Amino acid sequence: MREEELDRAATILRCGGLVAIPTETVYGLGANALDARAVARVYEVKGRPAESPLIVHVCSVEMARGLARVWPEGAGALAARFWPGPLTMVVPKREVIPDIVTAGLDTVGLRLPAHAVMVELIRRAGVPVAAPSANRFTGLSPTTADHVRAAFGDALDMILDGGPCEVGIESTVVSLAGAEPVLLRPGIVTREDLEAVLGRQVRVAGKVEGAHPSPGMHERHYSPRTPVFLVRDGRLPPGRGAYLWMRTSARAEYEQRMPSDAASYARGLYGALHAADARNLDWIAVEPPPETDEWAGVSDRLRRASCAG
Ligand code: TXA
Ligand code: MG
After folding, report:
1. Which of 121, 198, 241, 278 is most exposed by smallest CB count within 10 Å?
2. Which CATH superfamily is domain 3-204 in?
3. How would residue 85 be classed by pLDDT, with cut points 50, 70 and 90?
């Protein structure tokens, strides 16, 4: 990445523009988190309903603490262990963050990403950056700059290309704003990882209704256009048409071999779905992964992408 590109992106953010930015999880659609009008454009361009709060990205723990009204017990330990990295912590927010960022909630999701481009950009802009995944609402998240271009064309002020995302699925979201920690969205940082650091149980959120779901909690989120079916026991339904079968033991031409470890699978998942989606298939079959804690993030995204979602 060239210096001038980062400076131009920082200027665009400070002036209220939108920049697609690489992170280690997925590409984000970034705006100055302290500028309500810039954030309104994020919702508009994405086609995202106003009741879905955005994650605010920071370049340091100090910046995060400056945005939190309370720094809950456990936040320091989680930040020390998982930041920079794919963990978002929901904490009580300060008034400096406009209501539109948090969909009117008095909490804010904060994340210090592990990607040099995003962190350096925030540092140069000098403001925290609100960024949902850089896809249209309900679409698949982007893990390359080309995915972002395909979704938005010229609708953004700038797209920074930082190469393919290393983690590949969105951050784990944990709320520390209530009496007990709650896992709002599973990811590569697992519930057991969180419990080990916090030294206490983390409850898994049930389906959230009403005004403050994790956006990940809308049904049929993260979907390709092509219908996705989870196929158990290796039994494909009859009347197949053209399809691709994503499984760990793939052999045939219409099958795609997927990695058998969760981290590699997550890294390749959206790329594989984007590619399958571009082939005009009738459907995509996916073998469901093991039902263990380390696969929870991948399983969650597959379930939401699928018709069973
Ligand atoms: O990995 C990621 O988290 C990516 C990259 C760009 O950082 N961002 C991302 O943003 O996935 P988005 O908007 O697609 O998902 C944000 C998630 C949603 O599930 C949302 O509900 C949750 O974070 N969230 C944000 N603020 C919240 C809050 N105050 N209370 C509860 N959930 C919140
Ligand atoms: Mg998203």
Report:
1. 241
2. DHBP synthase (3.90.870.10)
3. very high
Identify the residue with better confidence: 220 or 226: 226
What residue segments make up the domains of the chain, in order of their start?
3-204, 228-305
What is the pLDDT confidence band of residue 255, given thresholds at 50, 70 and 90? confident
Q: Which residue has the tokens 């699978």?
A: 265
> Distance between CA atoms of 247 and 230, rounded to whole angstroms?
10
Q: Stretch 262-269: mean pLDDT, rounded?
A: 97
Within 6 A (CB) of ligand 1 lie 23, 25-26, 28, 52-55, 86, 88, 90, 102, 105, 107-109, 111, 113, 131-133, 170-171, 173, 184-185, 212-216
Q: What is the pTM of this model?
A: 0.94
Angle (CA) 52 116 177, round 5°: 35
Q: What are the residue ranges of helices labelled H in 172-284?
A: 191-198, 262-277
